[in-house]
Structures are given as C-alpha cells and as structure tokens.
C-alpha cells in the first residue's frame, strides 16, 4: 500500500491550481454580475436584475463604431504580422543563414520589451519618419508587437516538419513557390491559425500603444477607458462582458480549428 502522504504533493498542486482559477475567474464573475444590476451605480447587493444595460450598449453608436474600428485594425495587424512572421520563421529555419540567433532575438524583442517603453519608442519613430498618429501608426505598432508570437508558433511547427515533404514535391515537378503554397503552408496551417487568432485578440485588447499612437477616433479599449473616467457604471460592465464573451468564443473556436487541423 502506498502511504497516505505520497499523494500530498499531487493534492497540493491540485488545490493550488483551483485556488489560482478562482483568483482569475472571481473578478470576471463579479464584473459580469454587476452588468445585470438594475441601478446606475456599481455596488453590492444586487436587488433587481435587468438586461437594459446590454440593450443600451448594443444600440450605442459610439460602441459599435469603436468595435468595428478595433476589428479593422486587428485584421490589418494580423495580415501584416502573419506575412512578416512567416518570412522571419522561414529565414531562421533555413540552413546556411548567418546570424540566425541574432535575427530570432531581434524578432522576439518586442515581446519582452515593456509595453510602455515600446509605445514611447514607436511614438518617437513615427515622428522621425513623419507618420501621423492614427490608424496607420496603430497598425504598425500592433504588428511589431504581434510578430514575435507568429514567429515562435510557426518556427515550432516548421522544426517538426519532415524535410522529405518538400523534396517529394520538388521531385514531382513543383518549383519552390508551388511547393511552399501546396506543402509548407498547409502543414503550417495549425500554427498560422493559432498565431492569427492571437494577433487579433492582442490587437483588440491593446491599450497602451493605442493610447500613445491613436488619433481622434477611439478604439474599443480607448472608449471604455474614457467612460471609466466618468465613474463606473453597469453599462461599462456590460461592454466589458460582451468583449469577454466574444474573445473567449473566438479563442475556443481557434483552439477547435487548431486541433482539427492537426488531425
């Protein structure tokens, strides 16, 4: 028989995990609960419940415009980051390239630089090259921040790719470009899907870079920040809950697509 205390490490790890899960989920649950409160202030107890705040948010023209603007920026960011990230990953994985470690380190640098420092440096850069603040500057900054995640995911997938797949395509008459489109890209698709979804979510959620580089048109985080300055209300909780539910659904669907692509 195994001694009782032999299972204690596993039990402690399980308890620590669930405590951490509660720590993460409890604030979200409280935020969501407050979005149903039939009052104009955020405080317990909740005596009456209503869906009016959600109806008000979904009919709010400013919220819809900010959401569409954020989605447009996220899609443009994803396209740019994916192309650049795949190119860098292919470069790093190619044999005979000098300085691959330096290239990889520079590509991943934006992921480890604090967001505030990154935003300030990008603000200085766009002023130096005479790019006005606004949509183009935001997309540039978001893409720079998203590229490292695409590089890491694609490079990890590339390193598990059998070399004879491309060789077989070349032996059958395909040139390098056709082999890349018909062999490499389909094999990379799980990593590409994961990286693209990650780019979309991080771009929509990005506040610091948008704050430093944005123009007069607010993104969704900027709109929520502006409303918070006037005091918390269940309307803000409803906005945040909608964003939470949509991003969680996108993340779960992306995980489903990634798993299905690997099979």
TrEMBL record:
Subcellular location(s) of the protein: Cell membrane
Membrane topology term: Multi-pass membrane protein
Regions that span the bilayer: 12-36, 68-90, 102-126, 138-158, 179-204, 236-254
UniProt GO cellular component terms: plasma membrane
UniProt keywords, alphabetically: Cell membrane, Membrane, Transmembrane, Transmembrane helix, Transport
ABC transmembrane type-1 domain span: 67-254
Gene Ontology biological process terms, A to Z: transmembrane transport
Chief location: membrane
Domain of life of the native organism: Bacteria
A Pfam cross-reference name: BPD_transp_1
Protein family according to the UniProt entry: Belongs to the binding-protein-dependent transport system permease family. CysTW subfamily.
Protein's UniProt name: ABC transporter permease subunit
Organism: Rhizobium meliloti (Ensifer meliloti)
